[in-house]
Amino acid sequence: MPSDSAFAASLRRHAVFMAPRPATALPARFCVAVSAAAWSIAVLAARVPPFADSAALERLSLDEQRVWTQGNEVAQALARGGVVYEDAAATAYVQSVADRLFPEFKGHIQVSIVKSAQLNAFALPNGRIYINQGLLARFQNEAQLATLLGHEGTHFTNRHGYQSETSAKDSAAFGTLAGMVVPLLPQLVAVTSMYGFSREMETEADVQGFGRLKRAGYDVHEAPRVFEHLIADIKAQDIKEPFFFATHPKLVDRVDNMKKLSAGAAQGGAGTSSVDYTNTIMQVRVDNLELMLSMGRAKSALIMLSDPERRAELPPQADYYLGEAYRLRGQEGDVQLAEQAYTRAIEAAPEFAPSYRGLGVLRLKANHYADAQKYLDRYLELAPDAPDRKYVESYLKIARKKAGGQQ
């Protein structure tokens, strides 16, 4: 594999694809992912037949091999950059769904989860599929996940990455994409399939991915709900349609298309259990919620946690995250709402340590020093090796001193 410096030189040669340099320069080893855009220069616009089976993967042209090599470089950069979500059980589960949809390509389509709360997924020309943990957390059951994987896998089997030809307009758009992704996730700059493919390819992936869904025995009536979830979140958060939907059929159109495709299908099918799905990806949902809060996305977290159905998808300590969201938002009355949420979390999950810390800090700031001491002491009892122990001990020192003065 070429060195990082060689990649950096390659990026300079294709500067048209680059977004304006951010205030904090991105390390060269992460900038390598931007070179993924270069595959569009080498590829052909002519249509090529889909891969019939895995044997066809051994007969790639030199041009297509070069495209695959660039995809491999992107995958390696993502792995080095630490943006891949490391949960063996969750990854194995998602991979098993892809294998069920594409049995003839088992071992060649590889799925990874990305540490990002954005509702996105993308496929590379070499069969690597990446799904953001935010999207995985948003689905309600396996059939909905299978809808997404059927779509992305079809981009690979139909060789859409190889066929795509980037125009000057698309090149500029990629620069914009890179600029939008870098601030959100500094180590991830990649071309997403949902941005780079034509409307025709996206529709083809929807239709043929739906066929995979049906043949695998999933309930196809869950397919429209994938896009309905996205629409609901977009409206609730008062944001524009995600940028990765900019050049393919609008979400409302895709809901209509999926409903038409599923209209004549028999009722029933596999993959509809929300309980089974929740049990499998519970930790992904928790980690995604924590990621959202660490990014300061209190509004998004509050929208999620105010939905009873989505609250039921979380563990008993869900009110702790609600308290954190109120604390971060900081509007009038939010301190009281946060205290109430922390208190409910303690009642529902008394062994969950962070709830005591959250309530203790708020009580300290409200000058209720005895309460603060009680809750912070309990936090350290439950989490003696907490990474923020010194920070909490400094607060405890203040609480004890002030509490003594109040007696």
Question: Could you explain the architecture of this structure?
Answer:
This protein is mainly alpha-helical. It folds into 2 domains: 259 residues, no CATH class; 127 residues, Tetratricopeptide repeat domain (Serine Threonine Protein Phosphatase 5, Tetratricopeptide repeat, Alpha Horseshoe), CATH 1.25.40.10. Strands 1-3-2 form a 3-stranded mixed β-sheet, with helices on both faces. Strand 2 and strand 3 form a beta hairpin. Helix 5 crosses helix 7 and helix 7 packs across helix 11. The radius of gyration is 24 Å and the shape is elongated. The termini are far apart. The N terminus is likely disordered.
Number of helices: 21
What is the strand content?
Answer: under 5%
Total number of distinct structural domains: 2
In N-to-C order, the SSE pattern is: HHHHHEEEHHHHHHHHHHHHHHHH
Task: Tell me the radius of gyration.
Answer: 24 Å
Cα shape? elongated
